[in-house]
Specification:
The chain is an all-alpha fold. Helices cover 83% and strands 0% of the residues. Helix 3 packs parallel to helix 7 (185-210). The protein is flat. It is found in: Cytoplasm.
Length: 244
């Protein structure tokens, strides 16, 4: 029942995505309608996903988290897409903002597809861990793309904060190694959820610290490079766990 509702609402959201992209080249009214429609659809989708997560029961909280994370990714992608649509509105087809719009639309569709795969995997206990890990790998890749962009963070933080956030990576690494050894679905799911948060927190703290007023350009470049290398190394670890 929940799966059918999620599938139907997700399809409606993909249609909204198409309208948003085409709306950038049409009137402000059509663009506003597309944005309102997508906002309404994502609210409906979040509700049915939450109901689906609740139906799993409280004895499987890690799988509930996987489902909630999947809808959060879709909502974030939609927010980015609406922002890109506003930026591309009334611009010529070869304007850089149009390429950004296409990229945002691609991420949006990727995240909706990921959500549907996750919903399907939840019904099959044998694939839950694998799917959770695949979704986390995709999420980390998207976060790394944002990290590597030229966008300056809205706020800065101290280098100490960045160092503190690396402890989460150490804990998640130990958990990933243990999950690779045990191959238990629940361990793999827990690893996926922990890895997702640890890497995202590290990337945010690293970028904020690298733009601290006291940091030189040379140190900033090094910090950003090491943040990238750390993430790529961690992705490799997760790929190995997935292989196992």
């Amino acid at each position: 029942c929940y799966r059918e509702n999620i599938l139907k609402t997700a399809k409606a959201l993909v249609e909204d995505t198409k309208l948003l992209v085409s709306g950038a080249a049409s009137s402000q009214d059509k663009l506003a309608q597309a944005a309102q429609s997508s906002a309404s659809t994502i609210t409906q989708l979040a509700e049915v996903v939450k109901l689906g997560a609740a139906s799993l029961g409280s004895d499987d909280p890690e799988t509930q988290v996987v489902l909630i994370n999947a809808i959060k990714d879709v909502a974030k992608a939609l927010s980015d897409l609406i922002g890109a649509t506003k930026g591309a509105a009334s611009k010529p087809a070869d304007d850089p903002s149009m390429y950004q719009l296409k990229g945002a639309a691609k991420v949006m569709v990727t995240n909706v597809t990921s959500l549907l795969k996750t919903v399907k995997a939840v019904e099959d206990e044998a694939t839950r861990g694998t799917r959770a890990l695949e979704a986390t790998i995709e999420y980390i890749k998207q976060e790394l793309t944002v990290f590597q962009s030229s966008e300056v963070p809205e706020k800065t933080s101290s280098p100490e904060e960045s160092i503190r956030m690396t402890k989460g990576i150490t804990m998640a690494t130990a958990k990933a190694v243990a999950a690779g050894n045990s191959c238990r679905q629940e361990d793999v799911i827990a690893t996926a959820n922990l890895s997702r948060k640890a890497v995202a927190d590290m990337l945010t703290a690293c970028k904020q610290a690298s733009y601290h007023p006291d940091v030189s350009e040379e140190v900033r470049e090094r910090a950003l490079r090491f943040g990238t290398e750390c993430t790529l190394g961690y992705l490799e670890l997760l790929e190995h766990v997935l292989l196992v």
